[in-house]
Amino acid sequence: MDHQTSQVTGRPYSEKKEDGYIIREFFHDTPSFEFVWHRDKEDRVVQATQDTDWLFQLDNEVPQRLSKNKLFIPKETYHRLIKGTGDLVVKIWQKD
Fold it and tell me: What is the pTM of this model?
């Protein structure tokens, strides 16, 4: 994957489509302020591809460590990533 900064893409990650899901990579050198609260227009299932100390937080919930377990994110629900060490790679399934 190309490592493009958010100044180039407008987003703090790189992504590619693969076999019905999206592979998204977040880089350790991206400033923490780039990981903002947001919501998506579709339901998503997210799964880390490796062990990580990055955290995921849904609105009004305690942050949880991302893992190889699948995590469901309902559409229009505010959520954010909290940066850990190293890069983060996740698989994302969503309805197009």
Answer: 0.85
What whole-number distance in Å separates Cα of residue 30 and Cα of residue 27? 6
Residue indicated by tokens 């987003």: 11
Q: Is residue 81 helix, strand or coil?
A: strand
What are the tens digits of pLDDT across the range 7-34?
556 788 999 999 899 999 999 999 999 9
Q: 68: how many CB neighbours lie within 10 A of its CB? A: 11
Residue type, 42: E
- Please give the C-alpha separations between residue 46 and each of 7, 8, 70, in angstroms, as whole numbers: 25, 24, 6
Q: Are 69 and 52 in contact (CB under 8 A)?
A: no
Distance CA(50)–CA(64), nearest Å, equals 15
Report whether pLDDT(36) > 60.
yes
CA 22 to chain centre: 11
* Other CB atoms within 10 A of residue 72 CB: 11
